[in-house]
# Entry
Amino acid sequence: MNKSDFDYYLPKELIAQKPVEPRDSSRLLTYDRATDTVMHKHFYDLPEFLRSGDLLVINNTRVLPAKIHGIKTDTGADITFLLHKRIDKDTWETLCRPAKRVKIGTRLEFSPELSGEIVAVGADGARTVRFEYDGVFEEILSKIGDMPLPHYIHGELKDKERYQTVYAKETGSAAAPTAGLHFTERLMRELSDAGVRFAEVLLHVGLGTFLPVKTDEITEHKMHSEYYCLDERAADEINRAKAEGRRVIAVGTTSVRVLESCADCDGRVRAGSGETSIFIYPPYKFKVVDALITNFHLPESTLVMLVSAFVGREKALEIYKTAVEERYRFFSFGDACFFR
# Structure
């Protein structure tokens, strides 16, 4: 398959530039695979489509304010860094701009408490920075860093928490698991009261998820790895749901990646942690996921390919065409889909 097989037309004005308020007032397109039926709702209508015993699997990662500005100590030039992946306690793989001015040995000052040195340059242009700081690194970032909003969002985000899910816990992502942004605490209580259960997994979202597919043949595309963790409690909850015939519903493509990375051929998951570079595209047989809540994704992206694996490529493109005609809002701050 070629990446052009996953292209679709999207008017620029449908790319959401800011989130709606409240969170669950976003629109919700639902697609029932059994009846081939599309419905147009709002996210607060989600309880209509769930039943007691359903298990929603959510990614509890928390986004780092990972966009920081540094000054080269030798020239005073301003360099913007985006923390991409933590290598160890003090060392990060980063993307920077303008990159050509940043070589091994370059020293930078980010704030009175934070400085760093470039210790490696990757083949893909990434720069590895070893940081030096006084205090707690995450606390310094919370003061000096900006949220790493995607390139297609042009405005500033006044409230940093609006790019976090209400259930975010474990800091480490370079981008939000955006399907979860639609949930409110009230909606989660309503679902729990109706017998819907929740299981938490962790996948720290890296920028690789959003990098464009550069190869024409999609099988030649290499995914960046991302850290995940599935603990014993969540694994037991998921395996129990599968054994009892209850639906396992992934909230977001990141939760899908954890579940499918940890599953055996019989659909049982095993607790563990590590790096996953799983790339899901048609034809892929899902082992765990019965239904999927997700946003509308970029043309020719790996995420559109994942959705196409779940509902079929032609159906996915047909649904996206309908969403454009119905003026849904797209991408990170956009509306949601529920594929069941």
